[in-house]
Amino acid sequence: MKKIAVFASGSGSNFQSIAYAAKSGELKAEIVLLVCDNPKALVLERAEKLGIPAFVFSPRKYDSKEAFETEIAARLKESGAEFLVLAGYMRLIGSTLLAAFPRKIVNIHPSLLPSFPGKDAVGQALAAGVKVTGVTVHFVDEGMDTGPIIAQRSVEVKEGDTRESLQAKIQDVEHQLFPSVLQKLLGERILT
Ligand code: GRF
Question: At 55, is the secondary structure helix, strand, or coil?
Fold first, then answer.
């Protein structure tokens, strides 16, 4: 069984969909650690209910990104995690973790990259007036949502869509896509 760590900062609905897929056997992996940079995040409650250990930290209590990533790297090593899944982690991964897990970090982003990188991709899509947006799973590099693309799914923007309605459609797609792409990567030994 592959050991993975999930990074999240907020609600954690993607974390939960990955955890359910792992429990059901659809995803042949075990989440050995949740890494969370927000002590108030809802994802921590989800992890507790699921019995998944969490490392939660406050970035401002550290001198630098290097300092907190060094601690994260130590926790990851203890946990035995072999690769890292970013699911709503609202922070750029720095050189410490990139060097420790080369080409073993993936992220999900709520747009068809390279369109609408960074924050509020759903709002950016609405403001641009596009008729189609979507979801991208990609490898993580030092840039903001710039790494090699692994998979994409489109989502139609309908007249009258609000940020909430579009976000809900995008998240439905994310919850299907992310576990299946992770399983494919593991099966093809791309991530191991
Ligand atoms: C998702 O839309 C993901 O694409 C983006 O952040 C959001 C996280 O949502 N990177 P959740 O915390 O998994 O509910």
Answer: strand
Show me where the domains of the chain are located: 2-187
- For the cut 70, the answer to whether the pLDDT of residue 186 exceeds it is yes
pLDDT confidence of residue 191: 57
Contact 128, 116 (CB under 8 A): yes
**What amino acid occupies position 177?**
L
- In this prediction, residues 107-130 reach a mean pLDDT of 98
Per-residue b or e along 82-97, where b marks 16 or more CB atoms closer than 10 Å to that residue's CB: bbbbbbbbeeebbebb
Does this model's pTM top 0.85? My answer is yes
% of the chain exceeding 90 in pLDDT: 96
Q: Is 167 touching ligand 1 by the criterion CB < 6 Å?
A: no
Q: Whose CA is closest to atom 6 on ligand 1?
A: 88
**Substitution site in 7, 9, 13 for ligand 1 pocket (most atoms within 8 Å of beta carbon):** 13
Domain 2-187 class in CATH: alpha beta
Contact assessment for residue 17 and residue 91, using Cβ atoms and an 8 Å cutoff: no
Is residue 186 a contact partner of residue 22, using CB atoms and an 8 Å limit?
no
Q: What is the pLDDT of residue 188?
A: 74
With a cut of 60, say whether residue 46 has pLDDT above it. Answer: yes
Q: Atom of ligand 1 at shortest distance to CA of 89?
A: 10
